[in-house]
Every structure is written in structure tokens, then in C-alpha cells.
Amino acid sequence: xxxxxxxxxxxxxxxxxxxxEFADQWNGTWKGELSWYTPGAKTPxxxxxxxxxxxxxxxxxxxxxxxxxxxxYDAVRAYVLQAVDKTKGKWMIDEKNGILLEQxxxxxxxxxxxxxxxxxxxxxxxxxQDQMTVEFTSFKLSPSLSxxxxxxxxxxxxxxxxxxxxxxxxxxx
Length: 173
What we know:
The protein is built from one helix and twelve strands, in the order αββββββββββββ. The protein is mainly β. It has a single domain (2-172), classed as Lipocalin. The strands form two sheets. It has a ten-stranded antiparallel barrel. It has a two-stranded antiparallel sheet with strand order 10-11. A hairpin with a 2-residue loop joins strand 10 (145-151) and strand 11. The radius of gyration is 20 Å and the shape is globular. 14% of the residues are buried.
């Protein structure tokens, strides 16, 4: 019986330790400039960006995930980030309107892919010390170029046109 209790306590401490590690690394308010690059533009568009991450009260696996662009606090994107299967690094952003975005945590990077209307977007959030790098790459999910496939040694390869790339380096406040 004593060994069972010790095993349960160890599992709980490992789980809480992983949760605290995520909270310690990601929690806070992150602010900076988002640069939006589009084909043909000589300079990127820039807009202020802010992400606030905080634990949901009375929950060990949910976090408030709020995004603000251009200082427009009337248009806060108030989402919830929740663990789905931490052993597989699977998380979910719940936009609280029926939209759920799968995310995957690999080390210090949270990443996912989703399609909305005709745009497929690869998102990435990476935390290193007190800096968060945010990247969004958008493309249409129909190949713009097909090549290869001439033999068994050379597989067919499809390329896609990238329509925009966004990057922000945010500092923890």
C-alpha cells in the first residue's frame, strides 16, 4: 500500500512539475512589433502585438491566451490554451466560438497548422528566456509547382506559393 501511495505521489509531482515548467516559461505579458511581409512589398507592414498568458484559476491544464494587435484592447482575442495529451505534446487553442486549433509543444516551441477559407497558416510560438518569437506563414493549399517523380529514386515533390510571412519578437514585461 505504501508503494502505491509513493507511486501516485511521484506521478502527481512529475505532472505538476511539467505544468509549472510550462507556466514558468510561458506565463506573462509579451509585447513587441509584428512585421508582416508580402510578395512585392519593399518594406513590411508593422503593427504592435501583445500576447498575455496566465493560468486559468482552479485548472492545472488551461491557460488564458489573449492576443492584442495595434493596441486595440476593444478587440482582444481572448482564447484558452489547454493541454489535450501532454505526453504527446498535444495542446488546443479554443477560440471560444466553436473554432479549435490543434497545437503541438516540442521543447520550447508551440506550433500548429490550420486552414481558414483559402489560406493555410503555419503558426509557431517559441520562448527563449524572456523573449517570444512568433511566426505565421500563409499559403494556398494547392501546388504552384510539381516536379520530380521521374523514377523510384526521385519522388514527386509539390511546391506552394507563400502569400505572407509574419514575424514578431516579443519581450516579457
